[in-house]
Design goal:
heterodimer; A: 427 residues; GMP Synthetase, Chain A, domain 3; 12-stranded mixed β-sheet; 4-stranded mixed β-sheet; 10 helices; globular; B: 177 residues; mainly alpha; 2 domains; 76% helix; elongated
């Protein structure tokens, strides 16, 4: 994880990278979060609404000490104590990404706590925003992972591998005291023998993204305990191919840098909201999230920019709860390659991540012609990497036209960096 | 008094567009007459009148707020004491707040009920008291002020500590040099 010190908030300066050993004291809190997730088993939506209302106390308390949120609520004649449960949410204002970007220094609770870090959110869909994370925010994912393992009745592995395809090639090994004294191995496909080093881990839990899955599907099979895919849209075809390849569950894990974990798929491919850690609404088709657990920022009705609707179901997986249906995270886009195959355009997203860009868009104008619009400065190797990636995806001689511009016109609250003018082939 | 039903009626009623003081006073005085009691005399209104009374009068004439009040008002109610208690309780509220905010509307209805000893349907007195304490905007404003003061003093302490650390470092450097 990339993080930087934010002196204005008096963050301890020596924390310059994730060092899980330093966060050992959070083991009980992580365990408590797992218990919360496992214990939230309401029989129906009415019981769930009443039960989750109890978890609003933490959010209320935090709202009182966030300078920006207090100012915002006061301007509306509201008090944090008016927010007694989910039925009160619709009276409260929503928080947009733009507002977050402008107010990020005044969003966190006061006073600051030890070991806070500031992490830029993904810049691949627009200007990144700074996200201040508490120590617990940095480790909450391990509670979610433990919950998923227990819920799926899997044998827990203490070896966790994070497979990364980013060009930075960052790697590290770290102890994971908050995950049953496990170990975290970040392995980069840009370094030597990544597959061999993954294969040396006994039945690991594997975190990656669709780009990582594509890479793994081209290798010999591994035998992880569980695979979690996040960061961008996981197509059903890639998921099914991955499950067949690894012979283990593949979970699509919906999380954002701003909020953390929001939802995860079950064995029936339903995207279950991770209540009571978060509460999700759908407002005019946009997913709006409130975070109910302890954290640096009291997130109240944050507009994610992702599309979907929220429904209550009794799922065949055995879990009653809220699910996100018709989820469209980052505006799925499919390019058609010269052979007529539908290719997930988001496989190209990571190529843009570590350039000094504030925005970009890739348009497939015709089967082999692409326009790449860039706002900011890209390194010279971007063109070469794009050619390589497209070649691997089936374009022998793509034509790439690069344009640098001041701004890319968009509609909708969350930018879509990919679009195609090519109609998919008839079935 | 059915608070939930009243709030729904208020939301559905014709919007408030101002009401002449004399008419508003007449509407509110009628509540006491219908209950068999004595309304607040005109001279007393000179000190007790608040702009939000006009909103209450509007609700009394467009919803069952008036009827709910009349049903429970005691003939022996002393209007001056009641209005004094009510006005003190709602001093943090104004027309804009109660017209724009569902919680402040609920709050003012509950303060009205509390001032006149009206029972809230479906709640014990203890539950009504607790709900009103949660909603009380006077408490909220005090908390806002306290939180701001706390933040300022912590910030001042942090800056003082940083300055002291910097001064100590410069002093040490001076010794070394």
């Amino acid at each position: 994880m990339n993080s930087q010190v934010v002196d204005e908030l008096d963050i301890v300066p020596e924390v310059r990278h994730t060092d899980p050993e330093r966060l050992r004291w959070l083991v009980p809190e992580v365990s408590a979060a797992t218990d919360r997730l496992l214990s939230f088993q309401p029989t129906d939506e009415r019981a769930a609404t009443a039960s989750i209302a109890q978890h609003f106390a933490s959010l209320r308390k935090a709202l009182w000490t966030s300078p920006h949120m207090i100012s915002r609520l006061r301007a509306c004649g509201l008090s944090p104590d008016d927010l007694q449960g989910p039925d009160d949410l619709h009276h409260f204002p929503t928080l947009s990404r733009t507002e977050w970007g402008n107010a990020w220094r005044d969003l966190p609770i006061h006073p600051p706590e030890p070991l806070w870090v500031a992490v830029p959110s993904s810049g691949s869909t627009g200007a990144p925003v700074q996200v201040v994370k508490s120590a617990f925010d940095q480790v909450h994912m391990w509670a979610v992972l433990d919950f998923l393992i227990v819920r799926r009745q899997l044998t827990r592995s203490t070896q966790v591998a994070l497979l990364c395809t980013l060009p930075s090639g960052m790697e590290y090994d770290a102890a994971l005291p908050m995950f049953h004294e496990g170990h975290l191995h970040r392995i980069s496909t840009q370094r030597a023998r990544p597959w061999e080093r993954l294969a040396a881990l006994p039945n690991p839990i594997l975190f990656t993204d669709p780009a990582g899955l594509h890479w793994l599907l081209a290798q010999s099979p591994l035998r992880p305990t569980l695979v979690l895919s996040s960061a961008s849209h996981l197509s059903p075809s890639v998921r099914q191919a991955s499950e067949a390849h690894f012979q283990c569950p593949v979970v699509d894990y919906y999380a954002t840098t701003e909020v953390g974990a929001i939802a995860a798929t079950c064995g029936e491919q339903r995207l279950h909201v991770l209540a009571p850690e978060v509460f999700v609404e759908s407002i005019e088709g946009e997913l709006v999230v409130s975070r109910l657990r302890s954290s640096a920022i009291p997130i109240l009705r944050y507009r994610t920019g992702d599309s979907g609707r929220v429904a209550w179901i009794s799922c065949r997986c055995g879990q009653n709860g809220w699910v996100i249906a018709d989820f469209s995270g980052r505006h799925a886009c499919w390019f058609t390659n010269p052979a007529g195959a539908q290719i997930d355009a988001w496989q190209l997203a990571w190529l843009f991540k570590h350039h000094a860009l504030t925005d970009f868009r890739v348009t497939q104008d015709s089967t082999s012609q692409f326009t790449i619009e860039l706002v900011g400065t890209a390194k010279p190797n971007l063109q070469e990497h794009l050619y390589e990636a497209l070649f691997r995806m089936g374009w022998v001689s793509p034509s790439l036209s690069f344009h640098t511009c001041e701004a890319i016109p968009r509609s909708g609250s969350k930018a879509s960096p990919f679009r195609t003018m090519v109609s998919p082939p008839s079935p | 008094m059915n608070i939930k039903a009243l709030l729904a009626e208020i939301a559905a009623a014709p919007p408030y567009a101002g009401l002449d003081r004399a008419i508003a006073v007449a509407i509110l005085n009628d509540l006491f007459r219908k209950a068999g009691g004595t309304p607040l005399p005109d001279p007393a209104w000179d000190t007790q009148w608040r702009a939000i009374h006009a909103v209450l009068a509007h609700w009394a004439s467009t919803t069952r707020f008036g009827e709910s009040t009349v049903q429970q008002l005691r003939r022996t109610q002393k209007p001056e004491a009641g209005y004094r208690a009510f006005n003190e309780a709602v001093e943090a509220l104004n027309e804009e707040l109660i017209l724009s905010n569902a919680f402040r509307r609920e709050e003012i209805l509950r303060h009205w009920a509390a001032a006149w000893g009206l029972a809230i349907e479906g709640e014990t007195p203890a539950e009504s008291k607790k709900r009103l304490e949660t909603l009380d905007y006077r408490r909220t404003l005090k908390e806002f002020a306290r939180a701001e003061e706390s933040r300022k003093s912590e910030e001042a302490a942090r800056l003082a500590a940083l300055a002291a650390a910097q001064a100590a470092e410069e002093a040490a450097r001076g010794w070394r040099e």
